[in-house]
User: Fold these one by one.
Assistant:
Number 1:
Amino acid sequence: MEQPEQNVVTQTEPQTELPRAAALQDTRPSDVPDSPGASVFDAKNVSCYYGSFRAVTDVSLTIYQNEITAFIGPSGCGKTTVLRTLNRMNDLIPGAHVEGDVHYRGESLYAKDVSPIAVRRRIGMVFQKPNPFPKSIYDNVAYGPRINGQRNKGELDEIVEKSLRGAALWDEVKDRLKNSGLSLSGGQAQRLCIARTLAVEPDVVLMDEPCSALDPIATGAIEDLMREIKQRYTIVIVTHNMQQATRVSDRTAFYSVLRNEESDTRTGVLVEYGRTQQIFGDPQDTRTQAYVTGRMG
Amino acid sequence: MTATAVSGQAPDLREPKGWRSTKNRIMTVLMVTSFVLVIIPLGFVLFTVIAKGASIISWQFLTGSPIPPNVLPAGIGGMWPAILGTIEITALATVMAVPLGILGAIYLNEYGGKGWLAALIGFMSDVMTGVPSIVMGLFIFSIWVLHFGYSGLAGAFALGCLMLPVVIRSSYEMLRLVPDSLREGAYALGATKARVTVTVVLPAAIGGIVSGSLLAVARAAGETAPLLFTILTVTEANTNVFSGANTSLPSQIFSNASQPYTGAQDRGWGAALTLIVICFVLMIVARFVTARFTRYSR
Amino acid sequence: MSTAVKADPAVPAGSASPLSTRRPLGDRGFQILALASGLLVLVILVLIAVSTSQQASSWFSAEGLKIFTNNWDPATNQFGALAFIYGTAITAVIAIIMAVPVSVGIALLLNEVVPYRWSRPIVYVVDLLAVVPSVVWGLWGILVFAPWIQHIYASIASGVKGVPVLDALFGSPTSGASFFTAGIILAFMITPIVTSLSREVIATVPQIDREGAYALGATRWEMITGAVWPHSQGGVVGAVLLGLGRAMGETIAAALVIGASPVITSHLFAPGYNMPAVIANQFGEASGEFRAALMGLGVLLFVFTIIINVLARGVVERSARRKRGA
């Protein structure tokens, strides 16, 4: 990987001691296995284009099973773009295409005969702004199983309850499942969207800044949820909140922006990737260091 | 049917088999079919009109006068009275409806604000676009023709009533798109509201307003029903649009369509082609104006 | 039509009302002129109602409720109009049944399937459909389409002879100029307006809802039924109502191809009549109570279409407001 000529980071004089992010106290080292589990995603030299504009360049990393991996970095660094390549959501944008390869459990995601529908069934996504359908709470959660052929009312009831419990929403809505999904508060609606995603029993859950539209209490509830469900799922979360990354994630990938002077464009690049404790406590790259200590971003 | 992979087993990422993808494909085909179902009759009509009408069209046809009796074959006489009638009646209707429509839209957007009256007028204007054209004809018959007789003017009133709500609606949409910053700049220079509206807002929206009005004119030119009881179809050209019965292309087509004589039917096709060309030209000019002269669009 | 909220910078601060005499005369005159033009809409609508009802009053008083009987015979001064009301309803319903799936299909095609670059030509074609004048549809309808479809009607009729429900609907008598033909031609004519309104409604569905459905592994059709349709069903209903109103009032094409036969029959391929058609065809020679009767049909038509249009606009407004509020 070539050294970038110029990036958006401004170097200041180094301090004698890195200020310790207070949130680091929240990570419990014992939670992170020293040797990672199976590899779920294997990205090699992935570059993402919108038309001829290169949004992200040359990303290579591996996401491990049953871990929470966080993508952090300043705005415009492509972390959401990379996230969306993992479940082929960028296909929905005309002119978007991907170079390099992403393997999901050994299978290439972008091979010719791969169906994006099958991909998204296994790799679900929760969005920044909660987007419940204008249907009842029950129908929101049942939507996924229904389109996969589940018609039996009894089984649907079970799936709905299980998913709502899994999203820590069941107790709050069990008496009003017929109410519209639009009637829920922000935090509840986001948990509904999570329940909806869990209902199709995916392998991976991708989250694109899921708490940025929520208040701190709702945020805390979602973070608790993430820690609970990571035993059964693999989670990748994009967040601009560093404290959140230190609170929930096992591994962190830090992205930054490369500025191309001639064409005045910005391209995202993966700077550093490792265990969260190491990224925040002992960052190897100066850009990472500057970001996590709050000097930029 | 869990998706979590058992270790060692590669996931199947191929197309979901069976009903789901088939249904998706069927629906896409149906959607395309619905478009095809629209092209077919359109193509058919245009093709027939052009094929049958082109052989009738000639300088004689377009400028000859009077319109011959139905038994006579094409080639004798011509459609000039109808063409003249269409032009003068539609022009008169336009001159009445467009300025009033623009003023109405100005009221709604610039003066009406959130008041109940503006909301009512806006709502009823939209409702008025749905009033059948024949009702407009009956209305003008009751209120004008019974007292003053048939004339091109009566027909123009009826067409004008049809055009008015359409012009109001399209002009209103165009005025809405003009940004407030333009108005405020003019007010800051001490201009009155009327002056601002006429000299700043209207010119900014004029492209869209003109094209919307042209489409209203195209619709009016093709209308028959309002003219049935107001102009009384005749066969001689009438240059005085304000008095005396008149005729128009749609009126002639209507009366010729139910005739058994081939001469009359031929003339009907020729008139239809002429009419379609007129409407078509108006539509193309409207699009051109939209493309070149509209500064603010959605 | 929503109206804009803005403080009016033209009103001098402290003036008692927008028409305070502090403003120059020309400015006030212009405002009055604009207001008068707006009021013209209301005035015209009221005048329509009043003048036509007045002309039709002799019919209403002579027949009373008998106008709703199927007893139309000008020679003997009988003017029960049920056949025409029936014809108007039937042809409009046929037109809607055919036009709505096609129009919604095209609207979905434009919004969900076709890449933006190809949508312009498709829209042009649909607009072309709207430019063809009603009388040209009628001319083509009676001289070309009716003779052709007559054969198809005849074969269908012989095919369903004896079959209980189908024979009642599609059996003989058949004629090129008939209820069904009028319905087809009307369907062609209302497609552009239903399509364009449905398109507008479907385009307001937020993209994020579509993404939510896709993210669950939905196919495009499943996304449409799950995320797009719940948002747009209100607006589409409004569009359908507007199409219905337009179909009911469309005169000339119907007058030429409906067959001019005032009967009430379930046979859709038989000649029939409807309100605008009989007015168009017979008003010229009518007089006295006959003329009043035709005028009265015009009044009924006016009332029906006003009601449908008010309903339609109301439905569209309400679904738009709900979306904004939700």
Number 2:
Amino acid sequence: MSPKKIVRRIPRAAWLCALVACLNAVCWSLLTPPFQATDEPDHFAYVKQLAETGSLPTSNSEQLSTEEEDVLIGLHNFQVRQQPQTRTIASQSEQGELQGVLAAVADLPKTGSPAAGLATLQPPLYYAIEAVPYALASAGSVLDRLQLMRLTSALFAGLTALFVFLFVREALPGEPWAWAVGGLAVALAPLLGFMSGAVNPDSLLFAVSAALFWALARAFRRGLSTLDATMVGGLMIVGFLTKVNFVGLVPGALLGLVISSVRAARISGRSAYRLLALAVGIAFSPVALYAGVNVLSGRRHPLGVVSLALNTAHASILSQLNYIWQLYLPRLPGMVNDFPGLFTTRQLWFNGYVGLYGWLDTPFPGWVDNVALIPAGAIALLCGRALFRERAVLASRAGELVVYAAMAIGLLVLVGADSFRAFPATDAEFAQARYLLPLLALFGAVLALAARGAGRRWGPVVGGVIVVLFLAHDVFSQLQVVARYYG
Amino acid sequence: MRRVRISLLAALTLLVLAIVLTLAQSPMSVAFSNKVADQEATVASTTHDATYCQADELLPVHTSAIRIWLDAAAGPHVDVVVFSGGRAITNGSRGSNWTGGSVTVPVKPLSRAVNGVTVCVSFHLRDETVLTQGSMTPAAFAAREGRRALAGRMWIEYLRPGSRSWASLVPEIVRHMSFGHAVAGTWIVYAILVLLIATTAVAANVILTELR
């Protein structure tokens, strides 16, 4: 099947899910005050450097450009971020001062920002894309450029929802009505809207991860074709060039290619392995090229600046595994307690997903996290019921499920290993729910299964209620952000 | 189809009702604070379990949360107990993983103000650093960890529901939202509302056409 045919066969509902996700992310982009999303100043600096000088940032210091620093001061950014009791600028005189700063920095020479803080370690694809809106708005102020870049990010939210819908369609083809439940609920997920309404490579990472899940699901359902192999390889290139975290999905994706090519070989013979080689060759070509350039230019590490993000840990493998397990799950007997007094599954991940916006400084009141356990528990029960009812099908698709599990575990281990580097000085540096959003495709499938778990008669009703539940979560998250910054 | 339509209508009605109820609530306001903006100093720093107590505080009537200036990257579980005459008169706790320069702990409100109370804040730590911000004072007036005096007094704010509802604050919030964006003005609020309504309408359309 040609790519054109694939696009033509995308159902209208999938496009509408994409539209919902885009509108939602645009809403978040207007709502969130400039630079009040995690690390947004660093990501802006990376784009500024790329757009104004054509080169990558070279320092991970937080000494950003004068232009950006002055605007951050004008916005009172440093007083507001991580100080939930402090609001954003609120008077005509402060607005006047900000306008003065914006006018003054407009005359500064456009010499980029060699330092881009934490963003420096990331690959350049997302920033190269964002350089386009940055350049288009170059005649405007810093805030104009930021807003246009945020709108570009919002498009990736649309792509994420689209691919989640398509993944659910491939993975759970039995009940077409349930596809929209997964697609719509993910489109309305407030964390997706918040992250995609800001300048952050996570927005592209979510989209490419969802697309990878979809491409693998296609290969499993329809058999690995040249198009599928090329798509998986191509998506892996995009992922590698988007964010280091993508590496976590790669072992599982490779396993998926191996399993689907072994299956294809049963029908089409050894030529199926050529498809495996094609996908792997495409996927790793930029990594090989990048490593080659680094080796030829005499850098110490073949992965250059990216190697800083892959530093090995400071302790034994066992203590690292012990830590990673407890970062997500309750401690097992015999394990050293790395998180005393903390139920990580609940407090770090569940509560973090329920609501933690801005610079991780905007949560809901504690009782909301408790109430959220009720719908979450109901969804888990319904999903479990659907899986139990279809256990025979599950057994026949064990290989595919192992691949999805391997992708999820790979990501969890990567985030855990990264957090371990800062441990024990910081308990759980990267224990942020947004790092799990590359698994949104699986989340969409869980929600679709939950709706199916209610049975054919009540399933659509439950599906509709799940979607409205996500809408409510989104609306109240936005109200919480309004209360925190403008209340 | 009819069932889906009815349930969608009911769910959306409930959502609107929940929003109206929320807007009828009052936001927290600071009833009393010992914070002195230009005197911020770190009065304690620890990487281990600690209990800090600060005497001679005033607990305002109906205080429903106490904000303490603790600074942490991923804050620990915090317990707050307020003592008067050696007896605990109210307490509360806040789960871990808060972040930033302060932590707000909900407490049981009292129907009277109590003067001369001692506020004790405890947390359990292992290795992670928690800083306590406040104002430097002589040891006699400082907060204490056991018998040891800290370098000064912790900043504490006492919060209670304000006298105005969120709904009555809407005009001020709309005005506030008009500042600090790419294009200043209240247009942003209307744009957000239009986007929200459009999002809901498209989502409802998909539910009604697909979930059959």
